[in-house]
Amino acid sequence: MKLSSGIQRKKLTKKQNSIVVSNEYPQYLRAGAGTGKTEVLVRKIVNILEQDASVSLSNFAIITFTNKASDEMKQRISGLLYSNWVKSKDKRYVSELDAINMADISTIHSFCERLLRRFGLQIDIAPNFSVKSFKRESNEIVSRLVAEQYGNAILEPISSGALVRSIMLLLNDNGNRGITISEELLKNLLIPVDNNSYWNEFKKLFLNLYCRAEQEIERKKAEMNVLSPNDLIKYAARLLSNDYVAKKVSDKFRYVFIDEFQDTNSDQFELVKLLIDNGVKIFLVGDDKQSIYAFRGADVQNSQDMHSMIKHINRKRSNEYLDENFRSTPEVIKVINEIFSSKFNYNGQQLNFPKEPLDIPRGKGKTGISPLSIKFEKSVTEIVQDIIASTKINGRLAEYGDIAVLCRRNYDLDKISKELKEAGVPTYVVGGKGFYRAKEIVDVYKVLNAAVNTDIACRNELVFTDFNCSTDKLTGLVDEIAQILRSETVEDTLIHLYEKSRIFDYYRAGKNYQAISNLLKLKDIARGLIDRDNTQPLQFVEYLATMISTNQEEDEAEIPEVDRRSGVVTLYSIHKAKGLSFPIVVIPNCDSKLNRPITKPKIIFDSRAEKPAIGFDSEMFSDELPPDAEYLRMYEGNIAEQLEEEIRVFYVACTRAKYQIILSCDNKQDKVQQTVYYRDYASVIRWLLEMDNGAFVRKHIN
Q1: Percentage above 70 pLDDT, the chain
Q2: Longest Cα pair distance anywhere in the chain, in angstroms?
Q3: What is d(CA 578, CA 581) in angstroms, rounded to the nearest whole number?
Q4: In this predicted structure, what is the pLDDT of residue 365?
Q5: 485 with 537: CB under 8 angstroms?
Q6: 3-state class (DSSP) for residue 640
């Protein structure tokens, strides 16, 4: 296949190349997992630069989902520009390379912030605004408004704290989703529901408080010249409704490329619609099957509506779809297609999931590795040990670095990480919140506490620390630490402790790179506390005790790439693993119930329905209250929506695997099998057990 100049570095498929050279806008490229969508996006940008001398990178806005993705995008565009310059020596590539760091390649929030700082005065926003969450100030406003209502008979069974939390919950959810309660929407929400007298009256009061709170919060933010992150997108969309600004923006940005568009809220949808209306050439990339950020306000319906709108504009039956998966082996692709072409049911209802199989590119050969393995009553530690002992990848035994464990919940990340570390398995956690629960952090506290506390019990605790293993002179070292704490900073104290105890050598010998990185992060935290609050050593010991005892959540430190290459099992939340790939993927807790009470929403608010409605879980307020009939009506549909996202989360996890997917269940097979008879039970393994009356699972048990 002959490609245009500058995109010959790597051969594209016919379909990929047709997208790269297409001049049709707006365009929504639907790209399945592992289909090379980022490569296509980068090549399309460079192809435009090559074909139109009047266009430069300064005429593009390239919007990614995360800052890390923005950095990667810059590197890939730079790499392709440099490669083309080496071949052609065209000076234009040099000028674009010089401009790459000034190019608008960023997240949606950064893009909108720049628009508002430049044009915000057009909608009465001063350009020197600050960006902050504003949750504390919002909570104070809501608390004051709620306090004014007490004495109202409707609120007699409800505590003020519960009412404040419920209003804050809806404010946060609607902010994330990009939803504003207009007068028309409010009128529909207040239509009484039959046989629901208490909740009809409560909703009048609640929505009145909600709207007053929202107005006061906006007024306060305007006084303080503050915008929340969600405001950036909301006001940028409002900004583009201004004809002067729309003309300026469309003159500046002739092209806007947006990745991961399936995870979009209503404000982002409106922003893109306005850009299209003003003649900007829009290129979107997304995959509805990978829409997994509802907790951040994303709604897959926005993506589907954008599909429909662009099809209507272009008068086409469908949008482009990339389906050739270059990430996984043919065997893995076949298993993924088999799983996700099946029916997913809940309580007699079929759940929605697009039936769009991945295609296998020509020339992909077999590897001989079992693509799917289902385990019952086997720990992740045992599974990892089995992989290391017997699994071969391309003729070599698998190593720790080949394995990624993808968890649905952060709690599972911390639990499994602890088990692996106790078994001596080198482990790296990405997206876990167990920094202050990590043994090495607790051990540092024990050493510092023993240094400032003469209690013999504190000294006895040192026997169980890793420092007792790394040095045979711990008692003397603790005495040294006691002296240093009186005259030096905490950072200096920690440096002395790490060096004299040789703790890094001890951890490196055991390939415990996570512990090394966590200890370095603790040192950085100590330095930050000193710089910010002038925290003294004794105060730091108290601070550390508080953070540990209250189970404060904090990300574990990132392990340097050089240590990761040495071989560690990597643990990710499935959300953090999106966009990545791994030779072997282990997905634990596949028998966990997905529709547990903890996932039950406190408030259900459907603003899209023909009859918009809001419902409240009465248990959020009081056991004495009758159920809200509107909540009960909407609840089953809400469960179905949650479970449809769980299918998408499972799809994302499976499509990270190159050679093998391992699904792990905590319970025995016969106990798990019984869940098939529970209509209201949903789990990953339950869905798989329903395939071919259990034949699919039986085929892959080993």
Answers
A1: 97
A2: 80
A3: 8
A4: 63
A5: yes
A6: helix
- Cα–Cα distance for residue pair 7/488, rounded to 1 Å: 58
Outline where 286-428 has alpha helix (H). Answer: 300-314, 330-340, 380-390, 410-422
For 603-661, the pLDDT digits (tens) are 999 998 889 999 999 999 998 999 999 999 999 999 999 999 999 999 999 999 999 99
pLDDT band for 1, please (50, 70, 90 cuts): very low
Pick from 113-117, 564-568, 578-582: least confident = 564-568
Who contacts 464 (Cβ-Cβ below 8 Å, separation ≥6)? 446
Residue 240 CB partners (closer than 8 Å, separation 6+) = 246, 249, 271, 274, 275, 278
Q: Are strands 255-258 and 281-286 parallel, antiparallel or unpaired?
A: parallel
CB neighbours (10 Å) of residue 346? Answer: 22
Answer yes or no: are the C-beta atoms of 660 and 583 closer than 8 Å.
Answer: yes
What pLDDT does residue 597 have?
83
CB 643, CB 353: distance < 8 Å: no
Tell me how far apart the alpha carbons of residues 688 and 483 are, in angstroms, rounded to a whole number: 62
- Count CB neighbours of 550 within 10 A: 9
* Secondary structure (3-state) at 407: strand
Burial degree of 265 (CB within 10 A; 0-12, 13-18, 19+): buried
The answer to whether the CB of 494 falls within 8 A of the CB of 501 is no
- 606, 435 contact by CB (below 8 A): no
30 touches 287 (CB < 8 A): yes
Q: Which helix (H) or strand (E) holds 37?
A: helix 37-51
The H helix count followed by the E strand count for the chain is 30, 20
Sign of the dihedral through C-alpha 254, 293, 646, 595: negative
Confidence of residue 235 (pLDDT cuts 50, 70, 90): very high
The Cα 381–Cα 379 span in angstroms is 5
Residue appearing with tokens 């798990």: 672
For the chain, the straight-line distance linking the first and the last C-alpha, in angstroms and rounded, comes to: 44
Output the six-digit token pair for 91. 């000076």
Output DSSP code: residue 12. Answer: P
- Reduce the DSSP state of residue 611 to 3 states and report it: coil
The predicted model scores a pTM of 0.87
Confidence of residue 228 (pLDDT cuts 50, 70, 90): very high
CA distance 429 to 435: 10
For range 349-355, the mean pLDDT: 93
pLDDT at 145: 97
For residue 525, which of 592, 466, 444 has the smallest C-alpha distance? 444
Rounded to 5°, angle at Cα 155 from 153 and 158: 140
Closest by CA position to 529, among listed 416, 521, 426, 190: 521
- Give the integer Cα–Cα distance in Å for 683 and 643: 9
The answer to whether 137 and 220 have CB atoms below 8 angstroms apart is: yes
Residue with tokens 């923005």: 70
Q: Give burial (CB, 10 Å; 0-12/13-18/19+) of 609.
A: exposed
Which residues pair with residue 358 across a beta bridge? none
Distances (CA, A) of 558 to 361, 407, 433, 691: 35, 18, 12, 40
Q: For tokens 């401009």, name the residue.
A: 99
In this predicted structure, the answer to whether residue 562 has a pLDDT above a threshold of 70 is: no
CA distance 426 to 659: 21
Which residues contact residue 237 at a Cβ distance below 8 angstroms, ignoring those fewer than 6 apart? 267, 270, 271, 274
569-573 and 582-587 as β-strands: parallel, antiparallel, unpaired? unpaired
Of the candidates 185, 161, 180, which has an alpha carbon nearest to the alpha carbon of residue 170? 180
What tokens were used for 416? 């499994």
How many CA atoms does the CB half-sphere of 258 hold within 13 Å?
Answer: 28
The confidence band for 564, taking pLDDT boundaries of 50, 70 and 90, is low
